[in-house]
Specification:
homodimer, about 325 residues, 8-stranded parallel β-barrel, hydroxymethylglutaryl-CoA lyase activity (chains A, B), metal-binding (chains A, B), PYR_CT (chains A, B)
Chain lengths: ~325, ~325
């Protein structure tokens, strides 16, 4: 069984987008539950300014309050030197740095040019230094930018290289607004893996246009073995109201398990945690498996069928659902 | 560019599940619009008893009212001899027969045993005879039954063979409740194609567990070139309230076009028809592309980014969406 590594991002990428503040104790309880599911990595929170992203203003309290499972890496989003200092004080395993490979998207999202972002993140790397804390860089819009359109592969490779040269352990290729499609995913994944075989490569999909699971399989075809996903599909997309956000952890996991991949993650435990989400955030979530059940969650045979042999053929056709 | 054939089923498989009766003129207008989109086949309606499925009680009026495009095959669901006679009087191109390869599902859905269904459908084949009307058989639950669980591949091949022996031109492998997963789809598609290379093979997916697009790609990998899909993803699943139903035509088409397949279908025309659906049926639809737009439907650059060079780096990080 091929080993895959799943990384849960709901408590950062998901909660960040919620209008309702999730209480610190609830965040901690959820992360503690997720720590027992078998994820390779959990993105706990974000050390952005508490004023800018109030949903995650309790980053220190959450990082210090969770019970850490030594088999899980705990990563946090770090935007700048101040965030790095705060995060280091909380004994993180990994700092996740973010910038966009699209100039207009970076300016729109981070309010600075890509070069300014790179300079700022280079300082973060210096502050974190050569210690035990790993550096990952999440590159946004590598499969397309909602303002610019297509993003050249050469641009993506350029930014991967600059962060690889800085000493990043890993890079995440992010399909920020669900523009990736399977053949593109396979090609870009191959290109990055061939040129940077030593990097820990993660793929981060959104299901905005329904292709997230197909994209994950295309990435696996290209040799990718590590994926971000979000419990319940939490995490919206500002450019597509009503559309799905991050690829849903339980939907991805359910498919991968059926196909015989070894993810190390316990689907039933994940579903038990996901079931708490609607109550916690106050709205429905785009999880298909939570609604439909697992493939072999069977239904009782209707009463009228119970006595199979006594059944008489009937001209009345009740329902026809091929 | 590899040629694929898309078959639209919303006006039968979708409308059949709607609580609101869609007016005959509206059905006709929608089918006429779909006839100009480039579909290989349209499943127009069902010649079941008007009392059993009242939503499609206007089958004759619809079949006789549409303007037929000679490049499109018009197929209808035919459950029995009475339905076949009614359908033949309307000059159909193809009769679509339905039974389940799972005994409890067939009894539950059609209220008779599989052998009784087969006998009844054999009579239908006799009535239709060797004339110009083709026979297709949609086999339900070939990827799993919500009551029985797994369905042996041998069972599926057995029923395909019996209908091939009866002279059916085509067979549709139906994932009735969204239990199919990609590796299974590829294996079963290969098995059926190898054993029955002369049959017109269609795959019919539901997105109940989010895997429909991934399943379609797995089928293409196995050489399948023909798919049912439903405009707007119309057509619910009685076993999973709230979950998606049929694979959504525009979502499937959008992905296939991005990947370079030649479907012959005009996505913009399809989207224009799909946009009318919520008003017609009175509720939201699970179409992702209708909500999110096509991949390259770009968004304006926000005003604060307009003057790129004047931008000053800011410690305030607005949003971070990798």
């Amino acid at each position: 069984m091929q080993r895959l590594f799943l990384q849960e991002v709901a408590t950062r990428d998901g909660f960040q987008n919620e209008a309702r503040f999730i209480e610190t104790v609830d965040k901690i309880a959820m992360i503690d539950a997720l720590s027992q599911c078998g994820f390779a990595k959990i993105e706990v929170t974000s050390f952005t300014s508490p004023k800018a992203i109030t949903a995650l203003r309790d980053a220190e309290a959450v990082m210090q309050g969770i019970r850490r499972n030594p088999t899980v890496e705990y990563t946090v989003l770090v935007p700048n030197v101040r965030g790095a200092e705060r995060a280091l004080a909380c004994n993180i395993d990994e700092a996740n740095l973010v910038m966009s490979v699209s100039e207009p998207h970076n300016r729109s999202n981070l309010r600075m040019s890509r070069e300014q972002s790179f300079a700022q993140l280079s300082e973060v790397v210096s502050v974190i230094g050569q210690g035990p804390v790993a550096i990952n860089v999440s590159l946004s819009t590598v499969f397309g930018c909602p303002m610019q359109g297509d993003v050249p592969v050469g641009e993506v490779l350029h930014w991967v290289e600059r962060f690889a040269d800085l000493g990043a352990r890993g890079v995440t290729l992010c399909d920020t607004t669900g523009m990736a499609y399977p053949s593109q995913v396979e090609a870009l994944s191959r290109a990055v893996r061939e040129r940077f075989p030593e990097l820990q490569l993660t793929l981060h999909f959104h299901n905005t246009r329904g292709m997230a699971l197909a994209n994950a399989l295309a990435a696996i075809e290209a040799g990718v073995d590590r994926f971000d996903s979000s419990l319940g599909g939490l995490g919206g997309c500002p450019y597509a109201p009503g559309a799905s956000g991050n690829v849903c952890t339980e939907d991805l996991l359910h498919m991968l398990q059926l196909m015989g991949f070894n993810t190390g993650v316990d689907l039933d435990r994940v579903l038990a945690v996901a079931a708490q989400l609607p109550g916690l955030i106050g709205h429905d979530i785009p999880s298909q498996i939570l609604k439909a059940g697992k493939r072999l969650d069977l239904h009782p045979i209707p009463a009228h069928v119970a006595s199979l042999e006594k059944q008489v053929p009937s001209a009345r056709t009740q329902e026809l659902r091929p």
